[in-house]
What we know:
By secondary structure, the chain is mainly α. It contains seven helices and three strands. The chain has helices spanning 15-34, 43-50, 57-64, 68-80, 102-111, 114-122, 127-143, and strands spanning 55-56, 84-88, 96-100. Helix 1 packs antiparallel against helix 6 and helix 3 crosses helix 4 (68-80).
Amino acid sequence: MDISPVSKEPQDWPTGRLLSAVTRRIEREWNAHLDTWELNHASMPVLMHLLAGPRTQRELARESNVTEQTMSRIVARLERSGYVVREHDATDRRRRAVSITDAGRGAAFASARPRPAEELSTRGLTPEQITTLREILITMIEAHPRPGED
């Protein structure tokens, strides 16, 4: 097998390029699905975190593994959609807590149904291949900890 980064044939691509290409394609389709609720791959997990209760933007950024600046943009978008509100923290008026609205709760539950995500992620695979893929991905996740984790 000749591994060539310039080849148009996927079987010739390095593994990293294959992972990147399939991830981008699935992400594009997933974002199109989430657009039904004016969400995307970055904003949807924020709603999931907020289902457990209000959070500061700093907490949401840490839980989502993004910068505070990125989280500020995500929260602003969710606020424009009517899915979250920012309110002064009752215990510290300098802090603002982000809370999910009823509309946000509805969008979170509707968009989080597992079947569409699973179908996008495993299209073209047999049940046996899906099992193998999951085992490989779990191994890879464990071998590549998040920044800041040991």
